[in-house]
Design goal:
Blueprint (H helix, E strand, L loop, with lengths): L2 E6 L6 H11 L11 E6 L6 E2 L5 E2 L13 E4 L6 H6 L4 H8 L6 E4 L4 H6 L7 E2 L6 H7 L4 E2 L5 E3 L3 E4 L4 H14 L1 H11 L26 H8 L8 H7 L4 H12 L3 H19 L4 H7 L5 H12 L3 H7 L10
Parallel strand pairs: 1-2, 1-5, 5-6, 6-10, 7-8
Antiparallel strand pairs: 3-4, 9-10
Helix pairs in contact: 1-6, 6-7, 9-10
Length: 326
């Protein structure tokens, strides 16, 4: 059965954000085109929803979809006066959230993290929301560790994301977590979206479009991606970009939102995941192909970032068993 995603639409919802889960999850398919998710949009009582813009939305479902939902996504809704004043939810909304089953995965898009926090679901956890409201969030919910410098936070069952396009990153992350990098990358291509933006990337990038293409670090990033098996240093990247290390690092951060070496490590890990999922190469060969040097370094990265060994990751994604002849 497809994984059932229920998307909660409330009055004041941002229409663009409301459409993100269906757009991304409906593009996650097997090789024969079978969809891996089914998406239902619902509202309390199945009522018509007044959006943040100048139109309303008629949904087809009410809270009854929560009986079968494997994941619940709360689409972006700016916190109302009652919530900001008291840190609590209106009774009807609290009752709706109480109907979510104990093992159902819960995801908030952007400022809907306020709703999860008011429901007590984020106490003791790390979370994020739109950078402009992170200070307000932290003051209102001191039991939550708010991080304004990331695109999304994955706590296992509970996930929170930043604003706008970070919702796409979050949904693609879930596809990747559920079904692997290859299916997530294919879904991203169909959505014409970036296939991989790590959750730890900064929300706010100073110059997302370089002012001077000749001084951009984009060409160096492409150069590095073609050489992941090689021992690339920060100095190598700066030299390729014809910049000093200091200038290159500053410009790289302003364009990509993270440091050059962290970006390189993320790309190597992503490539290793793809090879584990889609090939029968032994772990030692994959470690070499991705620039980790040896299997010990690869295993350390997997345990640190994924909590699994490469072998366990391969088995979890039903990948081909490695051949001993290679």
């Amino acid at each position: 059965m497809p994984h059932h995603v229920a998307v909660l639409a409330l009055d004041g919802v941002l229409p663009l954000d409301l459409g993100i889960p269906a757009r991304v999850f409906n593009e996650a398919c097997t090789s024969d085109g079978t969809r891996l998710y089914s998406v239902s949009t619902f509202s309390p009582g199945g009522r018509t929803v007044r959006t943040h813009e100048d139109f309303r939305i008629l949904v087809d479902h009410d809270e009854s979809v929560l009986k079968t939902a494997d994941t619940v996504v709360i689409a972006t809704q700016e916190p109302g006066e009652h919530l900001l004043a008291t840190g609590t939810l209106p009774g009807d909304l609290a009752a709706t959230l109480d109907r979510i089953r104990p093992r159902t995965r819960i995801v908030s898009l952007c400022t809907s993290a306020f709703l999860l926090a008011a429901a007590g679901l984020l106490d003791g956890l790390r979370a994020t929301t739109h950078w402009a409201l992170c200070d307000t969030f932290a003051e209102l919910f001191p039991d939550v560790e708010v991080d304004p410098n990331v695109l999304f936070v994955d706590n296992g069952r509970i996930l929170t994301s930043a604003g706008g396009a970070a919702g796409i990153d979050m949904c693609l992350h879930l596809v990747r977590r559920d079904h692997g990098a290859a299916i997530a990358a294919a879904a991203a291509r169909r959505c014409v979206a970036a296939p991989w933006r790590e959750g730890g990337q900064a929300q706010f990038i100073e110059h997302s479009v370089p002012r001077d293409a000749d001084r951009s670090t984009s060409a160096t990033r492409q150069w590095a991606l073609k050489r992941l098996a090689e021992p690339i240093t920060l100095e190598d990247m700066a030299r390729h970009a014809h910049m000093s290390v200091r200038t290159f690092t500053r410009r790289f951060r302003s364009e990509a939102g993270i440091s050059p070496l962290k970006w390189l490590a993320q790309r190597r890990l992503a490539h290793a995941r793809l090879l584990l999922e889609s090939t029968d190469l032994p772990v030692a060969r994959i470690a070499t192909a991705c620039g980790f040097g040896d299997p010990v370094a690869l295993r350390k990265q997997f345990h640190t970032h994924l909590g699994l060994s490469p072998v366990a990751y391969r088995r979890a994604h039903n990948a081909p068993e490695p051949t001993t002849a290679r």
